[in-house]
Amino acid sequence: MQEVVEEANRFVLACYGKPETEEMSFTRQTLLAAMVGKSGKAMPSLTSLPPTTEA
Prior knowledge:
Layout: H1 2-15, H2 24-39
C-alpha cells in the first residue's frame, strides 16, 4: 500500500508541475497562496487544489 501512496503522490505532484520530492500539504499551501495572492479576490474553490498528504 505504501508504494501505491508514493506513486499517487508523484502523479499528483507532476500534474501540478511540482517536484516529486515535495510534500503534498506544502504543495497545497503554496498553490493556495499563489491563487489568493495574484487575484486579490475571494478564496478560490478548494476543489482546485491537490489533496493533503493525509488524504
